[in-house]
Write a structure and sequence with these properties.
about 230 residues, alpha+beta, four-stranded antiparallel sheet, three-stranded antiparallel sheet, 9 strands, about 20% strand
Length: about 230
């Protein structure tokens, strides 16, 4: 199934009983609302991840030598909204160069020794610290060498970047819930509407109740998403 706005609109109309129930909103109104309100909210829970290489050439020129903070600009387009920086991956060097693994004949003892050395080295290293300074700057506690890789959380700008399982099981519900709340805000201003065919009762309270039920299902779905990193304290 293609992840498109047309698919979202059909899902919403089906659950609202269109065309038997008329909507006060056009398709474009709904899509604009979902892009402005629902997509950024969804991205807070399930962000679009980008991996950006940061090099010495991106030096922001504002360094605090006293506190060992070095600022670097994130080289990303202006239309990308950065929510946070999840992690920074540093280049790890090893006495066992990559060229040494190109041979067809590898002594297993060398692999074991290399893994043991890497584990020992990492346990003795000072953990570098980083901090995100909105909108597009990070500070590092150590002066980088050739560069680092920054894992960045951003807002989804297209539907294709949403994982398919979350698109079908969670994002669609968020869109439906958002439109239900939108309609509730409109219809709650009136109790009924007089038409040439008689008086029509508006179902504002029903819309609110359905939205609240969907919000609970959505929150339960987010609670089942495993964290990106597992921490253990001993």
């Amino acid at each position: 199934m293609l992840q498109t706005w047309n698919n979202i609109i059909n899902h919403i109309k089906y659950n609202l009983g269109v065309p038997f129930n008329l909507l006060e909103l056009s398709d474009n109104d709904i899509i604009d609302f979902l892009k402005d309100q629902v997509l950024p909210e969804f991205s807070q829970y399930v962000p679009n991840k980008l991996f950006i290489k940061v090099t010495p050439a991106d030096d922001a020129g504002v360094n605090n030598m006293t506190y060992h903070q070095y600022e670097y600009k994130l080289n990303i387009p202006d239309d990308v909204y950065v929510l946070s920086v999840e992690n920074v991956f540093w280049n790890q060097s090893s006495p066992f160069s990559e060229n040494s693994w190109s041979s067809m004949f590898i002594d297993p003892a060398d692999i074991v020794l290399s893994n043991a050395y890497t584990t020992l080295r990492e346990s003795l290293q000072t953990v570098p610290e980083f901090n995100f300074l909105p909108p597009r700057t990070i500070t590092l506690s150590l002066l980088m060498g050739n560069g680092v890789i920054a894992e960045i959380n951003t807002i989804h700008t297209v539907l294709d970047t949403i994982p398919p399982d979350l698109y079908n099981n969670t994002f669609k519900k968020m869109c439906l819930s958002g439109v239900l709340k939108y309609l509730y805000n409109i219809r709650s201003k009136f109790t009924n509407i007089t038409t040439p065919f008689g008086e029509l009762q508006l179902n504002a309270q029903d819309l609110q109740a359905r939205a609240q039920q969907l919000d609970q299902e959505i929150q339960d779905s987010f609670n089942w998403i495993p964290p990106n990193q597992l921490l253990a304290w001993f």
